[in-house]
Amino acid sequence: MTSFTGRVAVVTGGTKGIGRAVAARFEAAGATVVTLARSEPAQAVGRFIAADLASSADIVAAFKAVAEEFGRVDVLVNNAGGARPGRALDYPEEAARAAFDLNVLGVLCAAQCMYPLTPEHGGASIVNIGSVAGTRPSPGTAVYGAAKAALASLTKSLALEWAPRVRVNCVVPGPVLTESLTAYYGGPEAAALVGQGLPMGRMAEPGDIAGACLYLASDEAGQVSGAELLVHGGGEAPRFNRESGAAGRAAGTGGK
Ligand SMILES: NC(=O)c1ccc[n+]([C@@H]2O[C@H](COP(=O)([O-])OP(=O)(O)OC[C@H]3O[C@@H](n4cnc5c(N)ncnc54)[C@H](OP(=O)(O)O)[C@@H]3O)[C@@H](O)[C@H]2O)c1
What we know:
256 residues, Sc_DH/Rdtase_CS, KR_dom, Short-chain dehydrogenase/reductase SDR, NAD(P)-bd_dom_sf, oxidoreductase activity
């Protein structure tokens, strides 16, 4: 695998969960790592710069600091993201705008700030962190899913416009066993049960997502741009095959 020695990797939301694992993986591969988040952790991976990734002013200031200190950016992992869950009917407008600010507009702004800092001869790469919620709607994820779908589209547009100088790809995780997701499911045992329902029999670990990011940013992926790499443990069996007798009978499968 490519050595990232001499390359600068910026990881947004690189202080917890998936982002921290991504930052650690790039550091282990030799990169100089910069992590951006709102609060400084007790022990940061790489150089920490405080920034709210939903604020274009903060993003511009953070990349100015990166430019002054390191002079270049080779890898940008747009990992900071998320949105409060909630049904579409009464989802607050302010929260919906905040979700798009963080998951879409913040990513666009970070990419715009990164571009002039990339080598003109190519080799730089952006990896966006999407979600299966952006490809498969489910109740309670209307706004989050819409924002991640927009991010997937933005990924492909940037890949077209910025080739061959910057490759742009998206990692699309299913559920990933982070502290926040474990809390969301009500604890480690409940989270493990959800994982057992996946074809691979477990949820992804943050390191699984980090591995996908490292590959997409590496020279081995030199011809990969505009791609969505699903890391979802095999996905989901369609419920209508197992559980809907009507659908099963219509398909002649007896509901299996
Ligand atoms: N976990 C999953 O199951 C899962 C599944 C699919 C996709 N994803 C996606 O993966 C990404 C990471 O998720 P995660 O579960 O690892 O999250 P997490 O554990 O909650 O960590 C989020 C990270 O992002 C930072 N962050 C959050 N809001 C920010 C903001 N406005 N500005 C700057 N930094 C911010 C946090 O630091 P501060 O709070 O200090 O700012 C933290 O470093 C997200 O884009 C999420 O949508 C996660």
